Amino acid sequence: MLYPKIILKPGKELPVLRFHPWIFSGAISSVSENLTDGDIAEVFSSKGKYLATGHFQNSSIAVKIFTYKQQEISNDFWYNRLAQAYALRRKLNLVSNPVTNCYRLVHNEGDLLPGLIIDIYDETAVIQAHSTGMHRLRETISDALSRLYGIHLKGIYDKSAESLYKNSGIKTENCWLSGGGNDVIAVENGCKFSIDIEGGQKTGFFLDQRENRAKTARYAEGKKVLNMFSYTGGFSVYALKAGAQLVESVDSSAPACRLAERNVSLNGIDSSRHRAISADARKYLENMEQAAFDMIILDPPAFAKNTASRHNAIRGYSALNTIALQKIAAGGILFTFSCSQVVTREQFNAAVAAAAIESGRRVQILEQLGQAGDHPVNIFQPESEYLKGLILSVE
Ligand code: SAH
Question: CATH 2.30.130.10 region(s) of the chain?
Answer without folding.
Answer: 5-67
